[in-house]
């Protein structure tokens, strides 16, 4: 860790005596939800070093950042801001379609050495050969966030929930003991996040690790989809999109939420009055003693080629993502899990969190990171996602005999659309 | 004669220029695009790539099926309702005519986004006013956004709400062009009002209803904003994905312009075929 | 035997028994739009049934304005719809005039094309239009891109043609005899006579542009060049914006049009009914 830090501070000192202080002008960033808020939170620290750069963060929502960036790139960069937040899973769509739309960060000062401060699984999707299109931001180790009081009312000890079967039983007990409360919510309308988390836990993904074949009908994914349907059928997992889930948290009608670690800040900032009522435990597994770690989401920052202030944009990206100060600020304020390895040694990580009943949640959540099986987004993520979504809906509504049949069908559809082979 | 032609084209030129630039050229270019593989950069010429995919793509057939469901259920219901409304609104027994017409015609001026927002909020599963009203009469809450059938019903309801007045206006104008004395003669012959409707009004309205049907078919073929905004991009899981939305997704979410162009041509072809069938079925029998 | 007035009474009652409930159902969404726009967020998302307005409109609108700069997008929409309407009325009137009053080579072809495009979904051209305007011309995020490509409008031409061809030809011939130039006849004689038709057309064109969603959604991705419907649509499904705020936006977009509709109902109806003229 030390050399990286040393380098960063040296660069900082050099920068201060050299041209860096002269950075000025305005830069604009597109981002979404809590990610946008956390970028906002690092501006103060950034401006302490670069007082003449005005940073504007525009929160457009996740889907629209994606849509508008694609449209902007298709239009030769028209209307794009200086910096764009890009989800790792979707990142390769951009480099693949529009290699000229984004600046090579290597040219702006992002050295191989700095890049080596991030874990490999974050880098694969962001770098193509010698070109670095994005700098890793956060990762999303999955955790089960739960309401301590609701569990206690039903006499459920979260430690005892090790399989999804246990989770269903607990869910039924909790719903009974807490009228009007549901065990969990999944975005059955617009997403497949539960399926993806469970599949990743089981070592499966839409594509193989190399991204050159379709893997979605492999046993791990089949088990994941079966588990999701069992939970939906048992009535303990009900439909709820992003905002409906937040409403449910505020209205105290939901007992657990399964998401990437970054959801911590969403719960905390939306329901500050529920301090002390929440806790975290590891996601259950399909089988007794099965794997219990997964990753969902995690993003990067990229600089557009049309930006007329790339140096200032890079200065901001480097401060926010490349320094412990920037990364830990985002963890503190909004629960974004740093992917910068050195930031994980920050003392804040060890602290018990008052909102979470003084549980040292970051120790627990980050402890799962090295058990996560990397999963590749590939340039075809968008195509695959639409197909899996439709398949999931049909399967849950009884449109397929079995999860295997559903995912075989999905795999052949993805093969048609992408031209990739189905993995053996 | 030549001078007239020159003058005429003088008046037509600006309009025809816009037409050439923003319709003719795109239509030709689109045709060319549909033969390119635009899946990854660089684009390459591959005549069977998109068309070959289109004829076996289950996602395309899903969108086609959904569009046809709307076409077969929503359009007839709406046109029948519009005809009924037009006849009732035309009745001289009607009180508060202005307010009544306003009620049905007002949605015509409400934009897609505005009404989509309202419908999405009204039909929200947990706190939506529709489910609360249903609860008053003892109906269990319906998950409008996550149940495929309910979501489709929601889209059909929304589109009908928005467009029935529009069609009623057109039919009403047709109704008002039917001379009064036709009915007077029938009344003298003691033909009942109901029979008058079926044997005089409807046949006379046939051409105008036909126009409404064709306009609605074209509208349905490019239905986009409602499933995009109300059911969150054709959700759940594509259950309300229409051809218009499928084209948008291929064009602007996956950025596969070549495939999207092939889809666009197919949509146009289907629209034209259905319109022709309509005109043929609805042609004057004499 | 039932008297005639009894029958009429029964009919009247029956008519209203059908129409009044239907009318209430049809007004309900617009009513709820207004109700939601005046309610605080926690009232919209409470388990109580809320059917009456409250007093939070200004607060909700302030939230919306702070979040998107909504007034700017309304300004963009007003400019776009106004310029579009004026230019389009001129283009379609000129074309309609040519098709109504002159016999010229290729007239049949032009007319056939215009009629033909009526059955062509706009979706056929939207992708190449986007590629051309945004990528090839590099004109994304411009006023040009918002206003010019949608100018092609076949209904307007047919509507104007209809109006011009119903005018007495002697009038124009008399002017010609006096040596008045053709474009002056069009501007000074024909256009003023077509005023009611133009009024109806203006309303329809303005409304279409005001509510246009797909094209402005695609062609502009910069917040300061967004039209109001696009800005509003972009908020649907986001958490950070209140639904009350979104509803105030919907009200701002809708109420002026409803007001115009009440005042100008005759022209609205004429313009829409023209959709059926073939």
Task: Explain the overall architecture.
The complex is a heterotrimer of chains A (about 425), B (about 290) and C (about 280). Chain A is α/β, with parallel strands linked by helices. Chain A has 2 domains: about 1-140 and about 295-345, Periplasmic binding protein-like II (D-Maltodextrin-Binding Protein, domain 2), CATH 3.40.190.10; about 140-295 and about 365-420, 3-Layer(aba) Sandwich (D-Maltodextrin-Binding Protein, domain 2), CATH 3.40.190.10. Helices cover about 45% and strands about 15% of the residues of chain A. Chain A is built from 17 helices and 14 strands. Chain A has a 5-stranded mixed β-sheet with strand order 2-1-3-13-6. In chain A, strands 11-8-12 form a 3-stranded antiparallel β-sheet. Mean pLDDT of chain A is about 90; it is low at about 1-20. Chain B is about 75% helix and about 0% strand. Chain B is built from 12 helices and 2 strands. Chain B has a two-stranded antiparallel ribbon with strand order 1-2. The mean pLDDT of chain B is about 90. Chain C has helices at about 5-35, 40-45, 55-70, 70-100, 105-120, 125-135, 145, 155-165, 170-175, 180-195, 195-210, 215-220, 230-235, 245-265, 265-275. The chains are: A alpha/beta (about 425), B mainly alpha (about 290), C mainly alpha (about 280). The interface between A and B is medium-sized, with 37 and 32 residues.
What's the short story on this structure?
Chain C: It is a multi-pass membrane protein. Chain A is of the alpha/beta class and 424 residues long.
What is the residue-mean pLDDT of chain C, rounded to a whole number? 90
What is the radius of gyration of chain C? 24 Å
From the 3D structure, determine the CATH topology of the domain at 69-235 in chain C: MetI-like fold
Give the overall average pLDDT of chain A.
90
Total number of helices of chain C = 15
CATH superfamily of the largest domain in chain A: Periplasmic binding protein-like II
Which runs of chain A of at least 5 residues are low in confidence (pLDDT < 50)? 1-20
Percent strand of chain A: 5-15%
CATH class of the largest domain in chain A: Alpha Beta
Main location (chain C): membrane
Family (chain C): Belongs to the binding-protein-dependent transport system permease family.
Transmembrane segments (chain C): 12-36, 74-97, 109-131, 143-164, 185-208, 241-264
Pfam families (chain C): BPD_transp_1
């Amino acid at each position: 860790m030390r050399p990286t830090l040393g380098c960063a501070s040296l660069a900082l000192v050099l920068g201060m005596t050299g041209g860096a202080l002269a950075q000025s002008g305005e830069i604009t960033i597109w981002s979404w939800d809590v990610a946008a808020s956390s970028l906002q939170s690092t501006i103060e620290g950034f401006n302490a070093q670069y007082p003449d750069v005005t940073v504007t963060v525009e929160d457009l929502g996740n889907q629209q950042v994606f849509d508008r960036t694609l449209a902007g790139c298709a239009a030769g960069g028209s209307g794009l801001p200086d910096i764009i937040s890009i989800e790792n899973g979707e990142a390769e769509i951009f480099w693949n379609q529009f290699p000229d739309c984004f600046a090579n960060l290597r040219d702006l000062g992002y050295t191989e050495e700095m890049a080596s401060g991030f874990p490999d699984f974050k880098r694969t999707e962001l770098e193509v050969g010698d070109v670095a299109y994005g700098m890793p931001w956060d990762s999303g180790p999955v955790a089960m966030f739960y309401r301590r009081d609701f569990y206690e009312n039903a006499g459920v000890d979260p430690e005892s929930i090790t399989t999804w079967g246990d989770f269903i039983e607990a869910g039924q007990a909790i719903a009974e003991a807490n009228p009007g409360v549901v065990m969990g919510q999944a975005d059955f309308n617009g997403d497949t996040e539960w399926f993806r988390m469970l599949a990743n836990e089981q070592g499966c993904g839409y594509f193989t690790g190399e991204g050159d074949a379709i893997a979605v009908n492999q046993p791990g994914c089949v088990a994941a989809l079966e588990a999701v349907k069992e939970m939906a059928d048992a009535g303990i997992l009900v439909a709820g999109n992003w905002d409906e889930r937040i409403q449910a948290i505020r209205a105290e009608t939901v007992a657990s939420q399964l998401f990437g670690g970054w959801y911590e800040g969403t719960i905390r900032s939306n329901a500050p009055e529920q301090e002390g009522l929440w806790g975290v435990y590891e996601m259950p597994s399909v089988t007794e003693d099965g794997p219990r770690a997964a990753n969902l989401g995690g993003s990067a920052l990229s600089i557009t080629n049309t930006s007329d202030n790339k140096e200032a944009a890079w200065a901001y990206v480097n401060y926010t993502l490349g320094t412990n100060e920037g990364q830990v600020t985002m963890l503190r304020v909004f629960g974004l899990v740093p992917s910068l390895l050195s930031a994980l040694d920050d003392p804040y990580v060890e602290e018990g969190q008052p909102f979470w009943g003084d549980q040292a949640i970051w120790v627990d959540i980050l402890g799962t990171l090295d058990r996560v099986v990397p999963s590749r987004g590939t340039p075809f993520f968008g195509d695959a996602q639409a197909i899996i979504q439709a398949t999931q809906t049909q399967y849950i509504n009884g449109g397929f005999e079995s999860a295997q049949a559903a995912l075989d069908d999905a795999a052949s559809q993805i093969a048609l659309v992408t031209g990739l082979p189905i993995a053996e | 004669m030549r001078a007239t032609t020159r003058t005429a084209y003088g008046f037509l030129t600006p309009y025809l220029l816009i037409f050439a630039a923003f319709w003719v050229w795109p239509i030709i270019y689109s045709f060319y695009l549909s033969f390119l593989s635009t899946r990854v950069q660089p684009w390459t010429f591959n005549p069977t790539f998109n068309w070959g995919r289109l004829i076996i793509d289950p996602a395309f057939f899903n969108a086609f099926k959904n569009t046809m469901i709307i076409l077969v259920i929503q359009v007839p219901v709406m046109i029948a309702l519009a005809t009924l409304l037009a006849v009732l609104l035309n009745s001289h027994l009607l009180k508060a005519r202005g307010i009544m017409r306003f009620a049905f015609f007002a949605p015509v001026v409400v934009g897609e986004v505005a009404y989509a927002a309202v419908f999405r909020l009204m039909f929200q599963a947990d706190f939506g006013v529709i489910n609360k009203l249903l609860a008053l009469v003892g109906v269990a809450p319906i998950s409008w956004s996550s149940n495929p059938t309910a979501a489709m019903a929601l889209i059909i309801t929304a589109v009908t709400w928005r467009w029935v007045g529009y069609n009623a206006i057109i039919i009403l104008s047709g109704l008002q062009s039917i001379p009064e004395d036709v009915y007077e003669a029938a009344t003298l012959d003691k033909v009942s009002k109901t029979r008058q409707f079926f044997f005089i009004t409807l046949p006379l309205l046939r051409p105008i209803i036909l126009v409404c049907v064709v306009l609605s078919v074209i509208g349905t073929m490019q239905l986009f904003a409602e499933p995009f905004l109300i059911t969150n991009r054709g959700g759940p899981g594509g259950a309300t994905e229409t051809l218009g939305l499928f084209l948008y997704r291929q064009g602007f979410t996956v950025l596969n312009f070549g495939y999207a162009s092939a889809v666009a041509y197919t949509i146009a072809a289907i629209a034209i075929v259905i319109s022709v069938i309509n005109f043929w079925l609805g042609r004057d029998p004499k | 035997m039932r008297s005639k007035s009894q029958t009429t009474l029964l009919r009247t009652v029956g008519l209203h028994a059908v129409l009044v409930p239907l009318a209430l159902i049809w007004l309900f969404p617009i009513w709820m739009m207004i109700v939601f726009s005046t309610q605080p967020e926690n009232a919209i998302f409470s388990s109580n049934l809320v059917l009456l307005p409250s007093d939070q409109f200004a607060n909700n609108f302030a939230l919306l304005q702070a979040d998107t700069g909504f007034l700017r997008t309304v300004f963009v929409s007003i400019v776009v719809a106004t310029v579009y309407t004026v230019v389009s009325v001129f283009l379609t009137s000129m074309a309609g005039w040519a098709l109504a009053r002159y016999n010229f080579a290729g007239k049949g072809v032009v007319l056939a094309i215009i009629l033909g495009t009526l059955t062509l979904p706009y979706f056929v051209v939207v992708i190449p239009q986007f590629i051309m305007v945004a990528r090839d011309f590099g004109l994304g995020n411009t006023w040009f891109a918002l206003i010019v490509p949608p100018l092609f409008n076949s209904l307007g031409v047919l509507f104007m043609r209809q109006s011009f061809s119903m005018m007495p030809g002697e009038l124009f011939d008399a002017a010609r005899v006096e040596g008045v130039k053709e474009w002056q006849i069009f501007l000074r004689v024909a256009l003023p006579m077509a005023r009611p038709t133009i009024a109806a057309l203006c309303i329809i064109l303005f409304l279409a542009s005001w509510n246009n969603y797909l094209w402005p959604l695609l062609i502009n991705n910069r917040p300061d060049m967004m039209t109001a419907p696009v800005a509003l649509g972009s908020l649907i499904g986001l958490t950070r914006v209140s639904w009350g705020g979104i509803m105030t936006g919907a009200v701002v977009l809708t109420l002026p049009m409803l007001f115009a509709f009440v005042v100008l109902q005759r022209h609205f109806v004429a313009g829409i009914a023209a959709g059926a003229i073939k």
